[in-house]
Amino acid sequence: MTVAISCGEPAGIGPEIAAKAWAALKSDFPMLWIGDPTHLPAGTPWKAVENPEQAASLSHEYLPVLPKDFGAPLTHGTATPVHAAGVIDSIETGVNLVGSDQCSAICTAPIHKKALADGAGFTYPGHTEFLAALAGVDQVVMMLASDAMRVVPATIHIALEDVPNAFTATVLTDTVLITHAALRRDFGIPNPRIVVAGLNPHAGEGGKMGMQELDWMIPTVEALAAQGIDIRGPLPADTMFHARARQTYDAAICGYHDQALIPIKTIDFDNGVNVTLGLPFVRTSPDHGTAFDIAGKGIANPSSMIAALKMAHKMGTQRGA
């Protein structure tokens, strides 16, 4: 059950945390790093392979590398647009490997979207949308997960003023159904418990602080419950994330980006994992960016990459079973 790792932005910390994560997990399951091996930290014990099958037999001793030649030299901390085509190819190769069942999952290192746009005309808002396009999927859901909690923002990278128009009954319904299916299939939870955060303070407090809860959120939650889904809400968001509350559900659906991400990044910053739900394959990613300011200094914390790889392996194994 080899996990593919796309290289991400070479000038960031992606190669470093991949090497550190492999060193920490090499006895647990095989990995395959896809990228230019000259970008790996000096001293990384790696070997070139041609396929995941070769990687599986080497991963306990060497970091298996499916080598790509990115051409231009690397400057830590400064993205080089010339590398853009190689970064995109690394992602596409990983998707092809999981799509053909040669790898059990893909874990993607952080990318730098401006460098991809400048160097290769990359037009996607980010990894998630690009992966959905490669998979031919119209709708996917972003989950942030750790051992402490799982949260799902129903709307993602939009201005707060646009949320009330973007967050609709249809969006909530689709988000819940995709999340529910993924919790069963990929996380092995037979009867997932889902809660929905209210959009307004105090979940609208009976219409005094907003009408979305009364107008459509409560009817939508009731309709989903009628389908047999264990779901509650909308609940006041300010009381959903303390320790006792988190024991009562398996995933929390939130209306917008910060409503979901602030709790998990506060509670478990180093171990949060970005998971894309709704794809025909398993994809995880560390929940941080390229960290140009510390790239090449050997001080990057690999905790989130380690957590992402462990989750990818676990989810891939669960889905395969």
Automatic annotation (TrEMBL):
Cofactor comment text: Binds 1 divalent metal cation per subunit. Can use ions such as Zn(2+), Mg(2+) or Co(2+).
Gene encoding the protein: pdxA
Entry binding sites for a divalent metal cation: 157, 202, 257
Keyword entries, A-Z: Cobalt, Cytoplasm, Magnesium, Metal-binding, NAD, NADP, Oxidoreductase, Pyridoxine biosynthesis, Zinc
Name by which UniProt lists this protein: 4-hydroxythreonine-4-phosphate dehydrogenase
Residue sites binding substrate per the record: 127-128, 265, 274, 283
Main localisation: cytoplasm
Compartments in which it is found: Cytoplasm
GO biological process, alphabetically ordered: pyridoxal phosphate biosynthetic process; pyridoxine biosynthetic process
Name of a matching Pfam family: PdxA
Other notes: The active site is located at the dimer interface.
GO cellular component annotations of the record: cytoplasm
Gene3D superfamilies named in the record: Isopropylmalate Dehydrogenase
InterPro entries per record: PdxA, PdxA_fam
Pathway(s) the chain acts in: Cofactor biosynthesis; pyridoxine 5'-phosphate biosynthesis; pyridoxine 5'-phosphate from D-erythrose 4-phosphate: step 4/5
UniProt subunit comment: Homodimer.
Coiled coil ranges: none
